[in-house]
Amino acid sequence: MHPQPQPQPQQHLAPEQGYASSDRTPHDDAVDDTVAATDLQNPSDALDFLAQVAERDAARSPGERPHEQTAGAGAHAHGNGHIPSQQPTIYPLLQTGQLSVEMVSTLLLRYHDKYHPYFPIANVDAMTPQRLWTTASDQKHLLTAMLTVASRDVQDWQQTHEACSAHMQDLIANLVYAGTGSVEAIEALLILSEWPPRQPRCPSIGRGEEDAAAWMLVGTAIRIGYLLGIDRTGFRTANDGNTDGLDRKRLAWAACYISDRQISVRLGKAFWSRGPGPMTALGTRDFPSLKPKQPWQDDYAAIFQANLDLTQLFSNAHDVLYATKDRSQQLHMGGEYVKYIDDFRVSLRIWHSTWGMLSCSAPLKASVTLCYEYLRLYINAFAYQATLNRLVAKAQAASPNGVFATSIAPFADIASTPDARFIYEAIDAATSILSVFNSLDPLILRTMPLKLWLCVIYSGTFLYKARCTGVMGAEQTGRVKQMIHDAVDKLQKASTCANDVGDRYSRLLRLLWRKPPSRGDVSRTGESATQHAYAAGTSMPQQLGPGDMQQQMQNPASINAFSWLDLGAVGDFATTNNSLPSESLDGLDRFDDSSNGGFGSFDQGFTIPLQYVWNTASPYGVMF
């Protein structure tokens, strides 16, 4: 018989022996450090902390966790603990045959060359065709967004664009429904907000519908950013380091700030994101991934910082001048805005002295210039509206008995007005926008972000109001009309199909400038009391009674009844003013040649197509 093995005496560790400080593991120290450093302010912080502790516990060395080492041995049986290579992720659009690998590679390269420079937030690895399978697995939202944008402006890729857009909509729906997200999803949403996919069922006249979709996309991106905590990346700490992950998060959140401010101002909505802190002062050093790798490449980091600084000025101008309607009206009547506008003009000159000579490619230079000129218009146009509102108030106050005298042209002697310098600069900024836009090739315009196209529409609307109130003389009006004509032509040529974005907004400009009213009196330019439908050459009565005034105040076709910043109201005004029977559509092709400075006509092929009908049978609805 073999001797039975003697049981070894069981060793018991004393509490102080088993947990002596000399036997502590690095893991234990890490947990204790986390406990000491964690600031638990709400239940969400507590849950995040518990998740971090669980992750640290799962990362213990094999010696500390023999149980899990045995259980997971099969998963690491191949080659030094590395997971064996798996089959490449099947991207749905590839699986269904709607895209091929060659098509995806072509679109990624096209996005990198044509679109990425204007808004360089996409991860560079995601644009590399050699990493397609990894990107399809780890960055599917970003991949689909880039494919959607890159296919939107080529006529032969329209079916591809529709397929990518539909798949993107599914991804966004799942993203919102699940309540989760990632940095790449934020990048995808922001990219789509800059280049909204084509909506096949939309009105034939542009009224800012794309901005509404962009606002929703930006809002979703910001909420995901808050959930991920990337809003804290703007606050530097001593142990931040310089990791690629942190740099990417910081860039994504800075892009959220830029997109949020720009789209919210255009729509007149409240801001959703916190801006950079007062002590942050983000600069090019904070965006190392945007620095040029070769001397001949554009410095995207510098361009991004220039846009970031310009957006900060934009945000401040909005908060001071346009925060609320009541506040703006108070400034209009009190006159305090003069100091604010002067201060903003100084800030603009400082920005221009810093970034005005930025060396970059012509399209990028044009994009920065358009944003700068639009901000100059946005600030100085406030004085124009203030002067107009004061003229209306003065006219109303001078008629206690319902009878008051009016001047034929409220801005005929613009040089004598207190705000002449501001109004002159607003006109100059608006015409500069048209000049820059008209100098660009339609193929370049086709790939530019939508916000740059809208700058032209805003400037054209402001100039229309300036013309109708007598700000511009006959010679200047003729030059502006020609610029509007050229801008309409550029918008049409930049469109890839009927009812495209450029096509729709070119119609808006045409309708607006087709037959502007003759220069009238203050009452016809009041905020709620104007009459627009007087025929050219018909003089206004020199005195108005209470009945006439009441009728004009109720007239919706008022030159001052809409803001040049409200594209929806501009569209309503333009279509109301030009409501003609179908057999008279050829009248829309012409400017009013009988007005001062009249300038020719549009091309004869202009027609207004029927409104597109909502197709409830569509499986995808509105495409994102």
Automatic annotation (TrEMBL):
Residues 214-290 form the Xylanolytic transcriptional activator regulatory domain. InterPro entries: AAA_Catabolism_Regulators, XnlR_reg_dom. Keywords: Nucleus. Pfam families: Fungal_trans. Residues 54-68 have a biased composition (Basic and acidic residues). Residues 1-88 are annotated as: Disordered. GO terms for molecular function: DNA binding; DNA-binding transcription factor activity, RNA polymerase II-specific; zinc ion binding. The keyword Nucleus applies. GO terms for cellular component: nucleus. It comes from the Eukaryota. Residues 71-82 have a biased composition (Low complexity). One of its GO terms (biological process) is DNA-templated transcription. PANTHER family: TRANSCRIPTIONAL ACTIVATOR ARO80-RELATED, ZN(II)2CYS6 TRANSCRIPTION FACTOR (EUROFUNG). This is Xylanolytic transcriptional activator regulatory domain-containing protein. It comes from Cryoendolithus antarcticus.
